[in-house]
Amino acid sequence: MPAATPSFRASYRFFLAGLASLTLLASASAQQTLTIAAFPAVDEIAKSAIPMWKKKHPDVEIKVISRAFADHHTAMTTALSTSSNLPDVMVVEYGYVARFAEGGGLEDLGAAPYNIKSQQAHFVPYAFRQGTTNAGSVVAVPSDIGPGTLLYRDDLLKKAGVKEADLTQSWDSFVAAGVKIKAGTGAYLVAHARDVKDIVIRSDIKPGEGLYIDNKGKVLVDSPRFVRAFELAKKVREQKLDGKIGAWSNEWSEGFKRGTIATQLSGAWLAGHMNNWLAPGTKGLWRAAQLPEKAYGSWGGSFYTIPKVSKNKALAWEFIQMMTLSPEMQLSAFKSQDAFPALVDVHKDAFFDQPIEFLGGQKARLLWRDAANKITAVDVHKLDPVAEEIVNTEMDKVLDQGKDVKTALADAKALLERRVARAQN
Protein backbone atom coordinates (compact mmCIF):
# COMPACT_ATOMS: atom_id res chain seq x y z
CA MET A 1 0.00 0.00 0.00
CA PRO A 2 1.28 3.49 -0.77
CA ALA A 3 2.20 5.92 1.94
CA ALA A 4 -0.53 8.42 1.12
CA THR A 5 -0.85 11.27 3.59
CA PRO A 6 -3.96 11.51 5.81
CA SER A 7 -4.81 14.86 4.25
CA PHE A 8 -4.80 13.33 0.81
CA ARG A 9 -6.95 10.40 1.92
CA ALA A 10 -9.49 12.83 3.34
CA SER A 11 -9.40 14.99 0.23
CA TYR A 12 -9.83 11.94 -1.99
CA ARG A 13 -12.80 10.66 0.03
CA PHE A 14 -14.44 14.08 -0.06
CA PHE A 15 -13.92 14.29 -3.80
CA LEU A 16 -15.54 10.91 -4.35
CA ALA A 17 -18.41 11.79 -2.05
CA GLY A 18 -19.11 14.83 -4.17
CA LEU A 19 -19.72 12.51 -7.08
CA ALA A 20 -22.33 10.40 -5.33
CA SER A 21 -25.03 11.34 -7.81
CA LEU A 22 -22.87 10.20 -10.68
CA THR A 23 -22.13 6.91 -8.94
CA LEU A 24 -25.82 6.25 -8.35
CA LEU A 25 -26.53 6.80 -12.01
CA ALA A 26 -23.63 4.58 -12.96
CA SER A 27 -24.88 1.76 -10.76
CA ALA A 28 -28.44 1.87 -11.96
CA SER A 29 -28.05 -0.25 -15.06
CA ALA A 30 -27.07 -3.90 -14.87
CA GLN A 31 -24.77 -5.74 -17.28
CA GLN A 32 -23.15 -2.63 -18.68
CA THR A 33 -19.83 -2.63 -20.51
CA LEU A 34 -17.29 0.16 -20.15
CA THR A 35 -14.87 0.38 -23.07
CA ILE A 36 -11.29 1.58 -22.58
CA ALA A 37 -9.05 2.28 -25.60
CA ALA A 38 -5.34 2.20 -24.79
CA PHE A 39 -1.87 1.38 -26.06
CA PRO A 40 0.94 -0.69 -24.50
CA ALA A 41 1.68 -0.77 -21.60
CA VAL A 42 -1.26 1.33 -20.38
CA ASP A 43 -3.56 -1.41 -21.64
CA GLU A 44 -2.01 -3.85 -19.17
CA ILE A 45 -2.34 -1.31 -16.36
CA ALA A 46 -6.04 -0.89 -17.19
CA LYS A 47 -6.55 -4.66 -17.19
CA SER A 48 -4.83 -4.96 -13.83
CA ALA A 49 -7.41 -2.56 -12.38
CA ILE A 50 -10.35 -4.83 -13.23
CA PRO A 51 -10.34 -6.78 -9.91
CA MET A 52 -10.46 -3.51 -7.95
CA TRP A 53 -13.22 -2.25 -10.24
CA LYS A 54 -15.27 -5.45 -9.87
CA LYS A 55 -15.40 -5.07 -6.11
CA LYS A 56 -17.48 -1.94 -6.58
CA HIS A 57 -19.19 -2.73 -9.88
CA PRO A 58 -19.64 -6.51 -10.23
CA ASP A 59 -22.23 -6.00 -12.98
CA VAL A 60 -20.12 -3.67 -15.14
CA GLU A 61 -17.68 -5.33 -17.52
CA ILE A 62 -14.44 -3.64 -18.55
CA LYS A 63 -13.45 -4.09 -22.19
CA VAL A 64 -9.91 -2.93 -22.97
CA ILE A 65 -9.33 -2.24 -26.67
CA SER A 66 -5.60 -2.44 -27.24
CA ARG A 67 -3.68 -1.30 -30.31
CA ALA A 68 -0.04 -0.52 -31.03
CA PHE A 69 0.92 3.06 -30.15
CA ALA A 70 0.68 4.57 -33.64
CA ASP A 71 -2.36 2.49 -34.62
CA HIS A 72 -4.18 3.56 -31.45
CA HIS A 73 -3.73 7.27 -32.07
CA THR A 74 -4.60 6.93 -35.75
CA ALA A 75 -7.80 5.08 -34.85
CA MET A 76 -8.73 7.64 -32.21
CA THR A 77 -8.06 10.52 -34.62
CA THR A 78 -10.47 8.99 -37.12
CA ALA A 79 -13.05 8.19 -34.45
CA LEU A 80 -13.03 11.74 -33.10
CA SER A 81 -13.33 13.26 -36.56
CA THR A 82 -16.38 11.13 -37.34
CA SER A 83 -17.81 10.93 -33.78
CA SER A 84 -18.14 7.18 -34.24
CA ASN A 85 -16.52 4.05 -32.83
CA LEU A 86 -15.34 5.97 -29.81
CA PRO A 87 -14.66 4.27 -26.46
CA ASP A 88 -16.02 5.45 -23.13
CA VAL A 89 -12.48 6.14 -21.91
CA MET A 90 -9.63 7.10 -24.22
CA VAL A 91 -5.98 7.01 -23.21
CA VAL A 92 -3.84 9.58 -25.02
CA GLU A 93 -0.08 10.19 -25.13
CA TYR A 94 0.65 13.78 -24.16
CA GLY A 95 1.85 14.78 -27.62
CA TYR A 96 -1.65 14.15 -28.97
CA VAL A 97 -3.66 15.90 -26.26
CA ALA A 98 -3.95 19.27 -28.03
CA ARG A 99 -4.75 17.71 -31.40
CA PHE A 100 -7.51 15.56 -29.93
CA ALA A 101 -8.95 18.51 -28.01
CA GLU A 102 -9.06 20.65 -31.16
CA GLY A 103 -12.44 19.48 -32.44
CA GLY A 104 -14.17 19.85 -29.09
CA GLY A 105 -14.90 16.15 -28.88
CA LEU A 106 -13.55 15.65 -25.36
CA GLU A 107 -15.26 16.39 -22.06
CA ASP A 108 -13.97 19.29 -19.97
CA LEU A 109 -13.00 17.43 -16.82
CA GLY A 110 -12.31 20.68 -15.02
CA ALA A 111 -15.99 21.62 -15.13
CA ALA A 112 -18.95 20.17 -13.20
CA PRO A 113 -19.71 17.43 -12.46
CA TYR A 114 -16.07 16.29 -12.72
CA ASN A 115 -14.24 19.24 -11.10
CA ILE A 116 -10.77 17.71 -11.38
CA LYS A 117 -9.22 21.16 -10.77
CA SER A 118 -10.04 20.71 -7.10
CA GLN A 119 -7.43 17.93 -7.07
CA GLN A 120 -4.77 19.76 -9.09
CA ALA A 121 -2.38 20.11 -6.14
CA HIS A 122 -1.99 16.33 -5.98
CA PHE A 123 -0.50 16.08 -9.48
CA VAL A 124 2.97 16.86 -10.76
CA PRO A 125 2.44 20.50 -11.86
CA TYR A 126 3.83 20.25 -15.37
CA ALA A 127 1.81 17.12 -16.11
CA PHE A 128 -1.52 18.64 -15.08
CA ARG A 129 -0.75 21.66 -17.27
CA GLN A 130 -0.15 19.37 -20.25
CA GLY A 131 -3.75 18.18 -20.06
CA THR A 132 -5.10 21.73 -19.97
CA THR A 133 -5.91 23.78 -23.06
CA ASN A 134 -4.97 27.44 -23.48
CA ALA A 135 -8.64 28.23 -22.84
CA GLY A 136 -8.40 26.57 -19.42
CA SER A 137 -10.33 23.38 -20.15
CA VAL A 138 -8.90 20.23 -18.59
CA VAL A 139 -9.47 17.69 -21.34
CA ALA A 140 -7.06 15.03 -20.05
CA VAL A 141 -5.94 13.82 -16.62
CA PRO A 142 -2.35 12.54 -16.28
CA SER A 143 -1.65 9.06 -14.98
CA ASP A 144 2.06 8.64 -15.65
CA ILE A 145 4.92 10.91 -16.68
CA GLY A 146 8.31 10.63 -18.38
CA PRO A 147 11.04 12.68 -16.71
CA GLY A 148 13.98 12.80 -19.10
CA THR A 149 17.09 10.82 -18.17
CA LEU A 150 20.42 9.66 -19.53
CA LEU A 151 20.90 5.89 -19.43
CA TYR A 152 24.47 4.68 -19.98
CA ARG A 153 26.52 1.47 -19.97
CA ASP A 154 28.78 1.67 -16.94
CA ASP A 155 31.04 -1.12 -18.20
CA LEU A 156 31.71 0.66 -21.49
CA LEU A 157 32.50 3.93 -19.74
CA LYS A 158 35.01 2.21 -17.46
CA LYS A 159 36.66 0.49 -20.40
CA ALA A 160 37.01 3.82 -22.21
CA GLY A 161 38.18 5.70 -19.11
CA VAL A 162 35.13 7.95 -19.14
CA LYS A 163 33.28 9.14 -16.03
CA GLU A 164 29.60 9.98 -15.64
CA ALA A 165 30.54 13.63 -15.11
CA ASP A 166 32.14 13.64 -18.57
CA LEU A 167 28.76 12.77 -20.04
CA THR A 168 26.69 15.18 -17.98
CA GLN A 169 28.84 18.29 -17.50
CA SER A 170 27.69 19.83 -20.78
CA TRP A 171 26.42 18.81 -24.19
CA ASP A 172 29.85 19.50 -25.63
CA SER A 173 31.47 17.24 -23.02
CA PHE A 174 28.83 14.62 -23.81
CA VAL A 175 29.96 14.56 -27.44
CA ALA A 176 33.65 14.63 -26.44
CA ALA A 177 33.05 11.65 -24.14
CA GLY A 178 31.46 9.87 -27.08
CA VAL A 179 34.68 10.23 -29.05
CA LYS A 180 36.61 8.51 -26.24
CA ILE A 181 33.98 5.78 -25.91
CA LYS A 182 34.06 5.06 -29.64
CA ALA A 183 37.87 4.94 -29.66
CA GLY A 184 38.09 2.76 -26.55
CA THR A 185 35.23 0.33 -27.12
CA GLY A 186 33.94 0.70 -30.67
CA ALA A 187 30.48 1.47 -29.29
CA TYR A 188 28.37 4.32 -30.61
CA LEU A 189 27.57 7.17 -28.25
CA VAL A 190 23.89 7.13 -29.27
CA ALA A 191 21.69 5.01 -31.50
CA HIS A 192 20.73 7.96 -33.70
CA ALA A 193 21.91 11.57 -33.84
CA ARG A 194 18.26 12.61 -33.84
CA ASP A 195 18.03 11.39 -30.23
CA VAL A 196 20.23 14.30 -29.16
CA LYS A 197 18.06 16.78 -31.02
CA ASP A 198 14.91 15.31 -29.50
CA ILE A 199 16.01 15.79 -25.91
CA VAL A 200 17.68 19.19 -26.37
CA ILE A 201 14.57 20.80 -27.88
CA ARG A 202 12.55 19.48 -24.92
CA SER A 203 14.91 20.76 -22.25
CA ASP A 204 14.51 23.88 -20.12
CA ILE A 205 11.58 25.35 -22.01
CA LYS A 206 10.35 28.64 -20.57
CA PRO A 207 6.76 28.88 -19.24
CA GLY A 208 4.30 29.66 -22.02
CA GLU A 209 6.88 28.96 -24.69
CA GLY A 210 5.63 25.62 -25.95
CA LEU A 211 7.71 23.00 -27.73
CA TYR A 212 7.34 24.13 -31.35
CA ILE A 213 4.71 26.90 -31.11
CA ASP A 214 4.08 29.32 -28.25
CA ASN A 215 0.70 30.17 -26.72
CA LYS A 216 0.28 33.10 -29.11
CA GLY A 217 0.81 31.00 -32.22
CA LYS A 218 4.42 32.05 -32.83
CA VAL A 219 6.55 29.36 -34.49
CA LEU A 220 9.74 28.71 -32.50
CA VAL A 221 11.65 26.23 -34.63
CA ASP A 222 14.39 28.69 -35.63
CA SER A 223 15.08 29.72 -32.01
CA PRO A 224 18.50 29.20 -30.36
CA ARG A 225 17.11 26.04 -28.70
CA PHE A 226 16.55 24.42 -32.09
CA VAL A 227 19.75 25.77 -33.63
CA ARG A 228 21.78 24.21 -30.83
CA ALA A 229 19.89 20.93 -31.01
CA PHE A 230 20.47 20.64 -34.76
CA GLU A 231 24.13 21.62 -34.50
CA LEU A 232 24.77 19.06 -31.75
CA ALA A 233 23.06 16.31 -33.74
CA LYS A 234 25.09 17.28 -36.80
CA LYS A 235 28.30 17.13 -34.77
CA VAL A 236 27.42 13.66 -33.51
CA ARG A 237 26.89 12.46 -37.09
CA GLU A 238 30.06 14.13 -38.39
CA GLN A 239 32.12 12.45 -35.64
CA LYS A 240 30.53 9.08 -36.57
CA LEU A 241 29.19 8.69 -33.04
CA ASP A 242 25.72 7.39 -33.94
CA GLY A 243 24.70 4.08 -35.43
CA LYS A 244 21.94 5.59 -37.59
CA ILE A 245 19.59 3.21 -35.78
CA GLY A 246 15.94 4.13 -35.29
CA ALA A 247 14.17 3.62 -31.97
CA TRP A 248 12.04 0.48 -31.49
CA SER A 249 13.76 -1.34 -34.35
CA ASN A 250 15.37 -4.77 -34.01
CA GLU A 251 18.76 -3.12 -34.53
CA TRP A 252 18.02 -0.80 -31.62
CA SER A 253 17.35 -3.58 -29.12
CA GLU A 254 20.28 -5.59 -30.48
CA GLY A 255 22.53 -2.57 -29.92
CA PHE A 256 21.54 -2.55 -26.26
CA LYS A 257 22.03 -6.29 -25.93
CA ARG A 258 25.41 -6.41 -27.67
CA GLY A 259 26.86 -3.29 -26.08
CA THR A 260 27.24 -1.38 -29.33
CA ILE A 261 25.18 1.57 -28.02
CA ALA A 262 26.70 3.27 -24.97
CA THR A 263 23.94 5.70 -23.98
CA GLN A 264 20.28 6.42 -24.56
CA LEU A 265 18.50 9.71 -23.91
CA SER A 266 14.84 9.07 -23.11
CA GLY A 267 12.12 9.09 -20.50
CA ALA A 268 12.76 7.26 -17.23
CA TRP A 269 10.28 4.59 -18.32
CA LEU A 270 12.83 3.18 -20.80
CA ALA A 271 14.82 1.56 -18.01
CA GLY A 272 11.81 -0.64 -17.29
CA HIS A 273 11.40 -1.59 -20.94
CA MET A 274 15.09 -2.48 -21.12
CA ASN A 275 14.78 -4.69 -18.08
CA ASN A 276 11.53 -6.35 -19.11
CA TRP A 277 12.05 -7.07 -22.80
CA LEU A 278 14.51 -4.89 -24.72
CA ALA A 279 17.75 -6.07 -23.11
CA PRO A 280 17.13 -8.06 -19.90
CA GLY A 281 20.49 -9.80 -20.30
CA THR A 282 22.30 -6.54 -19.61
CA LYS A 283 20.99 -6.31 -16.06
CA GLY A 284 23.46 -4.54 -13.79
CA LEU A 285 25.43 -2.93 -16.60
CA TRP A 286 23.35 0.24 -16.96
CA ARG A 287 23.19 3.38 -14.84
CA ALA A 288 20.97 6.48 -14.91
CA ALA A 289 21.96 10.14 -14.70
CA GLN A 290 20.37 13.52 -15.13
CA LEU A 291 20.52 15.00 -18.60
CA PRO A 292 23.68 16.83 -19.68
CA GLU A 293 24.14 20.46 -18.69
CA LYS A 294 21.61 20.15 -15.83
CA ALA A 295 18.80 20.13 -18.34
CA TYR A 296 15.34 18.92 -17.36
CA GLY A 297 12.73 17.84 -19.84
CA SER A 298 9.59 15.76 -20.24
CA TRP A 299 9.60 12.71 -22.48
CA GLY A 300 6.19 11.11 -22.80
CA GLY A 301 3.26 10.62 -20.47
CA SER A 302 -0.20 9.03 -20.53
CA PHE A 303 -3.52 10.81 -20.03
CA TYR A 304 -7.14 9.71 -19.58
CA THR A 305 -9.97 11.42 -21.44
CA ILE A 306 -13.73 11.02 -21.93
CA PRO A 307 -15.21 11.53 -25.42
CA LYS A 308 -18.31 13.70 -25.36
CA VAL A 309 -20.32 11.00 -27.15
CA SER A 310 -19.63 8.44 -24.42
CA LYS A 311 -22.86 6.88 -23.16
CA ASN A 312 -21.28 5.90 -19.86
CA LYS A 313 -19.72 9.14 -18.67
CA ALA A 314 -20.40 8.52 -14.98
CA LEU A 315 -18.73 5.12 -15.07
CA ALA A 316 -15.96 6.46 -17.27
CA TRP A 317 -15.18 9.19 -14.77
CA GLU A 318 -15.20 6.74 -11.90
CA PHE A 319 -12.70 4.57 -13.75
CA ILE A 320 -10.46 7.56 -14.51
CA GLN A 321 -10.50 8.58 -10.84
CA MET A 322 -9.37 5.09 -9.90
CA MET A 323 -6.49 5.21 -12.39
CA THR A 324 -5.32 8.76 -11.65
CA LEU A 325 -6.31 9.60 -8.06
CA SER A 326 -5.82 6.27 -6.31
CA PRO A 327 -2.33 6.07 -4.76
CA GLU A 328 -2.70 2.29 -4.58
CA MET A 329 -3.38 2.01 -8.31
CA GLN A 330 -0.62 4.43 -9.28
CA LEU A 331 1.94 2.60 -7.16
CA SER A 332 0.86 -0.76 -8.56
CA ALA A 333 1.34 0.53 -12.12
CA PHE A 334 4.76 1.90 -11.17
CA LYS A 335 5.86 -1.45 -9.76
CA SER A 336 4.50 -3.59 -12.58
CA GLN A 337 5.00 -1.41 -15.68
CA ASP A 338 7.47 1.29 -14.56
CA ALA A 339 4.77 3.90 -15.18
CA PHE A 340 6.22 6.84 -13.25
CA PRO A 341 3.28 8.22 -11.20
CA ALA A 342 1.80 11.63 -11.90
CA LEU A 343 0.34 11.67 -8.38
CA VAL A 344 2.84 13.44 -6.12
CA ASP A 345 1.66 11.70 -2.94
CA VAL A 346 2.94 8.43 -4.37
CA HIS A 347 6.40 10.00 -4.65
CA LYS A 348 6.66 9.78 -0.85
CA ASP A 349 6.42 6.00 -0.89
CA ALA A 350 9.37 3.93 0.33
CA PHE A 351 9.46 2.20 -3.06
CA PHE A 352 11.39 5.21 -4.38
CA ASP A 353 14.24 4.39 -1.97
CA GLN A 354 14.62 0.83 -3.21
CA PRO A 355 17.64 -0.02 -5.38
CA ILE A 356 17.01 -0.99 -9.00
CA GLU A 357 18.80 -4.22 -9.85
CA PHE A 358 18.86 -3.51 -13.58
CA LEU A 359 20.75 -0.29 -12.84
CA GLY A 360 23.36 -1.98 -10.67
CA GLY A 361 21.53 -1.29 -7.42
CA GLN A 362 21.23 2.44 -8.09
CA LYS A 363 18.36 4.28 -6.37
CA ALA A 364 17.46 5.96 -9.64
CA ARG A 365 13.83 6.67 -8.78
CA LEU A 366 15.05 9.41 -6.44
CA LEU A 367 16.96 10.91 -9.34
CA TRP A 368 13.88 10.86 -11.56
CA ARG A 369 11.68 12.27 -8.81
CA ASP A 370 14.05 15.21 -8.51
CA ALA A 371 13.90 15.76 -12.27
CA ALA A 372 10.09 15.61 -12.28
CA ASN A 373 9.96 18.40 -9.72
CA LYS A 374 12.17 20.64 -11.85
CA ILE A 375 10.47 20.25 -15.22
CA THR A 376 8.62 23.31 -16.46
CA ALA A 377 5.06 22.96 -17.71
CA VAL A 378 5.03 23.10 -21.51
CA ASP A 379 1.97 24.31 -23.38
CA VAL A 380 0.78 21.81 -25.97
CA HIS A 381 -0.44 22.89 -29.39
CA LYS A 382 -2.74 21.05 -31.75
CA LEU A 383 -0.09 21.19 -34.49
CA ASP A 384 2.70 19.69 -32.35
CA PRO A 385 2.59 16.31 -34.17
CA VAL A 386 2.70 18.09 -37.54
CA ALA A 387 5.55 20.29 -36.34
CA GLU A 388 7.47 17.22 -35.21
CA GLU A 389 7.19 15.67 -38.67
CA ILE A 390 8.36 18.88 -40.35
CA VAL A 391 11.31 19.33 -37.99
CA ASN A 392 12.36 15.69 -38.31
CA THR A 393 12.29 15.92 -42.10
CA GLU A 394 14.63 18.91 -42.00
CA MET A 395 16.82 17.20 -39.41
CA ASP A 396 17.24 14.24 -41.76
CA LYS A 397 18.21 16.60 -44.58
CA VAL A 398 20.92 18.08 -42.38
CA LEU A 399 22.21 14.68 -41.29
CA ASP A 400 21.94 12.79 -44.57
CA GLN A 401 22.28 15.47 -47.23
CA GLY A 402 24.47 18.06 -45.53
CA LYS A 403 21.84 20.81 -45.60
CA ASP A 404 22.80 23.95 -43.70
CA VAL A 405 21.28 24.05 -40.21
CA LYS A 406 19.90 27.58 -40.35
CA THR A 407 18.52 27.04 -43.85
CA ALA A 408 16.82 23.83 -42.72
CA LEU A 409 15.23 25.52 -39.73
CA ALA A 410 14.14 28.52 -41.80
CA ASP A 411 12.43 26.14 -44.23
CA ALA A 412 10.78 24.30 -41.35
CA LYS A 413 9.57 27.59 -39.90
CA ALA A 414 8.10 28.78 -43.21
CA LEU A 415 6.21 25.53 -43.75
CA LEU A 416 4.92 25.41 -40.19
CA GLU A 417 3.84 29.06 -40.29
CA ARG A 418 1.69 28.25 -43.31
CA ARG A 419 0.11 25.37 -41.41
CA VAL A 420 -0.54 27.61 -38.39
CA ALA A 421 -2.14 30.30 -40.57
CA ARG A 422 -4.33 27.69 -42.26
CA ALA A 423 -5.42 26.30 -38.89
CA GLN A 424 -6.27 29.77 -37.58
CA ASN A 425 -8.41 30.51 -40.62
TrEMBL record:
Residues 1-30 form the signal peptide. Keywords: Signal. The keyword Membrane does not apply. It holds the Pfam family SBP_bac_8. It is found in: Periplasm. InterPro entries: Bact_solute-bd_prot1 (IPR050490), SBP (IPR006059). It comes from the Bacteria. Its main location: periplasm. One of its GO terms (cellular component) is periplasmic space. Belongs to the bacterial solute-binding protein 1 family. This is Sugar ABC transporter substrate-binding protein. It comes from Rhodoferax lacus. The lineage of its organism: Bacteria, Pseudomonadati, Pseudomonadota, Betaproteobacteria, Burkholderiales.
